[in-house]
Amino acid sequence: MLIINMVGNLEEKARNYYILAVIAETFGMTSEAATNYFKALFAIDDAAITRIGKAPKDHTERFEVLKASFPNLYRITDRLFSTYRRTYTKDLEKGEVALVKKQVEEAFKYAKIELPKNEEIRGRIEEIAKKGKFSG
Amino acid sequence: MKRLEEELRKLLKKESFLVDIILFGSAMKSKERPGDIDACAIFREKNYEKIENILYEITNIGKKMQLKLHCEPLVIDNIYKEPLYASLLHEGYSIHNRKALREMLKFESFILLTYSLKDKKPSDKVRFSYALYGRKKDGILHKIHGKEVGKGTVMVPIDKIEIIRELFRQWNVKCTEQRVVLFK
C-alpha cells in the first residue's frame, strides 16, 4: 500500500514538474523550464524504480537499477545527464530545452505515465488564477 | 591520456560536423591526479540533436576508459560570446592539431602569481624561498621554466601551474593569480 502511494506521488510529481516546465517555457524562461523538465525526468525514473520495490541510495545505484530494469529510461537519462550537469553553470539555449522536452516526453511514454495534455496545463493556469494566488 | 586523444581523434575523423575537441583544465596543467578531464567540443552549427549525439559519444569514450570526462559544447558562431573561449586560447590543447592553441598562435601562456609571506616566521620564509627559487636558481620555479618578476611575484607557465599551486598549498602560502599572455 505504501509503495503504491509512493509511486502515485512520484508520478504526480513528474506530471507537475512537466506542467511547470511547459509554463516556464511558454513565458520564455528557458532556464526554469530546463530545471523542471529534468526534475520531471528524475521523478519518472524514481517512480519506475519504486514500482519494482527498489530504493537506490545514490545516483550511481539509481543508474545501475535503470540500466538493468529500464534500459529505455536509462538511455534517456544517461544521455541527458551531461546536459543536466551543464545547467549548474550555464543556461541552455531554447533549442536545447526543446530537445530535453522531447526526450522527457519519451520517458513518460516508456514509464507508462500519462503525459499532461495542453488542456490540462491550461486548466491548471486558470485554476491558479481563479484562486487569486497572484493578487497578494 | 594518449589513448583518450587517439579515440577522440578517431571521432573527429568520423564526424565532419565536429571542428575540434579542445582539452583544458587541471589535467593539462601537470596535476598529479586530476579528478576530471575537461573538454570542449567545437561544432560547425547549431544542430542540437547532432550536438547531443556527439557529446554522448564523447562522454562514452571517457566512460569506457573509466575517466571522468566532461565535455562542453561550443558552436563556432557563438565563439566570441563565450567566456570559455579565452581560457581555451590560454590553456587549451587541440586534438585535431595535436598542439596547444597557444603554440599554434605563437604566444606563451603564464599565470602571474602574487604572494605574501608576511604571516610566516623568518625561518619559514627562508625555507619557502629556497623551495621556490633554490639556493642557486635551482628551485622548483626554475625547473619548470617559471620567471621571477619581482618581490613576491612569479610567472609560471600555464601547463605547470598545478606544481606551483601544490607547493603553495603545502606551505600554506596565500596567493592571487592572473592570466598572462606573452607574444613570441
Architecture blueprint of SSEs:
The complex is a heterodimer of chains A (136) and B (184).
Chain A: H1 2-26, H2 30-51, H3 59-69, H4 71-86, H5 94-110, H6 118-130
Helix pairs in contact in A: 1-2, 2-4, 2-5, 3-4, 4-5
Chain B: H1 2-14, E1 18-24, E2 37-43, H2 48-64, E3 69-75, H3 84-91, E4 93-94, E5 99-100, H4 101-104, E6 107-115, H5 122-133, H6 140-143, E7 147-150, E8 153-157, H7 161-170, E9 175-183
Parallel strand pairs in B: 2-3
Antiparallel strand pairs in B: 1-2, 1-4, 4-5, 6-8, 6-9, 7-8
Tell me what the structure shows.
The complex is a heterodimer of chains A (136) and B (184). Chain A has 136 residues and is mostly helical. Chain A has helices at 2-26, 30-51, 59-69, 71-86, 94-110, 118-130. The mean pLDDT of chain B is 93. Chain B has helices at 2-14, 48-64, 84-91, 101-104, 122-133, 140-143, 161-170, and strands at 18-24, 37-43, 69-75, 93-94, 99-100, 107-115, 147-150, 153-157, 175-183. Chain B is elongated. In chain B, helix 2 links the parallel strand 2 and strand 3 (69-75). Chain B has a five-stranded mixed β-sheet, with helices on both faces. The A-B interface holds A 78-79, 82-83, 85-86, 93, 95-96, 98-99 and B 46, 48-49, 52, 55-56, 59, 70-72.
